[in-house]
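[recover] target loaded
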């Protein structure tokens, strides 16, 4: 189709900036042409459509014309309306940061002018990424990659980049991550602050909402990186799932923030959650909560408790005294089951048998020995002692407070009350660690 355009060519002065995110209303008199310029915000397929603005125009075929040019004013695409009052559409694959021009022209010599609407649609060159799946890619120098993500549920999401190796190719500010909404409006951007190449951006999405994630390598050499999308676990609602014998990397960058994890045990048993930072000066605080978000156990570096199968529990990790840092949170069974042929040391705690409520029966080893089938904990009273100490429960007041000498299990340790009327949790005040602990 032939395109009737004026002989003029755009300049940066005569071409008006084009709003790519909102329709543009314009009036063209007969044989009038308007020029617009744009800078592509992202790599992708762009579609520009010029059509009547009020559905009452009366212009004939080939009366409105639209053209797309590159920065050197070379025509990339052109079109005219096919029928009366019809649209004209041009398309092109545009590169991020490059300059382009659009021209709109009304050629009817007998018309009185026309009211039109210029609309833009952007489809980024993106590959899909699923929630919880890690996508890896090698980015060459000055290369970028774009992902598209559709939120499965409403919530706050974390978009993270991590290096695929321990190479020193990363330098500060060399890796950039940008979030765009479905209209390709930039929402957030961040660069790595040091050589580890890690970036995390958080954004709240509604179920079904689309977001684009662009990762760019600004370094002078190739780097290998991965992108992972997960929930921002800064509330009970967005708590991440933690599996038995699994681990999760926790980074706390704000002194006011905490990280939340959800744990659902398959069996009733004793479980421990630890940070792996025992002995370090910058120690995190861990809290174990039930499904009602009531505190069960609180401790530095590790918490232990008897958990019921199928129930939901929360582990809340934070740093005290305005500290920040990172660590690995792990989940594991606290006590091992008794087996034969094992060398047990004195005061070691093992599981053998089950109580009516489904919880394991605990025994403490009285003397060092190698376990044998005919010396099981239930029968060999000279080798094992059944632990009948109750689990600590928060007293409601003075009527059910603990008395001096009372013994309890709390956070995997045995405690003895030092005072009467004791309503404090062990480790806070009024308790001493019992001598028969498995230390």
């Amino acid at each position: 189709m032939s395109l009737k355009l004026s002989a003029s060519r755009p300049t940066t002065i005569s071409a008006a900036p084009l709003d790519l995110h909102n329709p543009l209303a314009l009036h063209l008199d007969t044989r009038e042409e308007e020029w617009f310029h744009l800078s592509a915000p992202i790599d992708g397929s762009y579609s520009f459509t010029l059509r009547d603005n009020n559905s009452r125009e009366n212009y004939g075929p080939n009366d409105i014309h639209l053209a797309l040019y590159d920065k050197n004013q070379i025509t990339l695409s052109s079109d005219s309306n096919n029928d009366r009052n019809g649209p004209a559409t041009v398309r092109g694959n545009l590169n991020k940061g490059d300059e382009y021009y659009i021209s709109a022209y009304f050629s009817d010599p007998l018309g009185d002018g026309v009211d039109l609407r210029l609309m833009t649609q952007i489809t980024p060159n993106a590959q899909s990424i699923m929630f919880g799946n890690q996508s890896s890619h090698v980015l060459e120098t000055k290369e970028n990659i774009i992902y598209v993500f559709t939120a499965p549920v409403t919530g706050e999401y974390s978009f993270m980049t991590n290096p695929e190796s321990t190479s020193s190719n990363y330098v500060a500010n060399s890796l950039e991550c940008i979030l765009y909404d479905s209209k390709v409006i930039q929402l957030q951007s961040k660069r790595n602050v040091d050589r580890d190449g890690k970036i995390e951006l958080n954004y709240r999405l509604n179920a079904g909402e689309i977001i684009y994630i662009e990762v760019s390598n600004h370094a002078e050499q190739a780097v290998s990186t991965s992108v992972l999308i997960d929930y921002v676990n800064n509330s009970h609602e967005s708590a991440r799932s933690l599996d038995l014998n699994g681990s999760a990397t926790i980074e706390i960058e704000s002194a006011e923030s905490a990280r939340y994890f959800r744990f659902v045990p398959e069996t009733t048993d004793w479980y421990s959650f630890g940070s792996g930072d025992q002995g370090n000066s910058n120690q995190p605080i861990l809290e174990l909560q039930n499904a009602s978000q009531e505190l069960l156990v609180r401790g530095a570096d590790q918490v232990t408790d008897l958990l019921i199968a199928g129930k939901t529990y929360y582990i809340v990790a934070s740093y005290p005294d305005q500290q920040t840092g990172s660590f690995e949170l792990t989940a594991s069974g606290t006590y091992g089951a008794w087996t034969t042929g094992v060398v047990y040391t004195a005061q070691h705690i093992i599981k053998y048998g089950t109580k009516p409520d489904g919880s394991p029966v605990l025994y403490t080893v009285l003397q060092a020995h190698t376990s044998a089938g005919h010396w099981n904990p239930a029968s060999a009273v000279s080798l094992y002692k059944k632990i009948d100490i109750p689990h600590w429960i928060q007293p409601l007041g003075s009527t059910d407070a603990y008395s001096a000498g009372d013994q309890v299990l709390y956070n995997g340790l045995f405690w003895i009350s030092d005072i009467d009327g004791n309503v404090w949790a062990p480790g806070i005040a009024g308790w001493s660690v019992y001598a028969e602990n498995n230390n």
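[recover] notes: The chain has five domains: 16-124, 127-231, 245-333, 336-386, 398-433.
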